[in-house]
Each structure stands twice: as structure tokens, then as C-alpha cells.
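Colleagues,

For the teaching module next term, I've prepared a clean inverse folding example: a structure given as C-alpha cells, and then the sequence designed for it. I'd like students to try predicting residues themselves before seeing the answer, so please don't circulate the second half yet.
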């Protein structure tokens, strides 16, 4: 009786591993969604925000660690 339970458990484990591998293989072959990963070749840059530096005009760029 014990031998049958062990054989059944091993078979269930093999079936579970096989089903897992089967579904993992199926997910890789599915086509990509339409429009995914496609970037536009030209970007509309009109009407945007003016670019300014992050520091004030009174501070310099190399003045980040003034407190040290």
C-alpha cells in the first residue's frame, strides 16, 4: 500500500512539472501586443516648457557639497 502511494505521488509531481513546463513554453511563443515597443520616429517638441538649470543663478554647478 505504501509503495502505491509513493508511486502516485511521484506521478503527480511529474505531471505537475510537465504542465508547468508546457504553459511556460506556450507563453513565450505568443505574439506581442499591437503597438508594443514601437517608438515614434519624430517627437513633437513645440509648445514645451523652457529648459532651465536646476541651480540658481547665484550658485554654481560645482557648489553641490558646500556644507562639507
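(Answer key — instructors only)
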Amino acid at each position: 500500500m505504501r509503495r502505491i502511494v509513493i508511486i502516485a505521488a511521484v506521478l503527480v509531481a511529474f505531471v505537475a512539472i510537465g504542465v508547468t513546463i508546457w504553459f511556460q513554453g506556450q507563453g513565450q511563443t505568443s505574439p506581442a501586443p499591437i503597438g508594443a515597443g514601437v517608438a515614434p520616429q519624430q517627437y513633437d517638441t513645440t509648445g514645451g516648457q523652457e529648459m532651465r538649470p536646476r541651480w540658481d543663478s547665484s550658485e554654481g554647478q560645482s557648489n553641490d557639497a558646500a556644507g562639507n
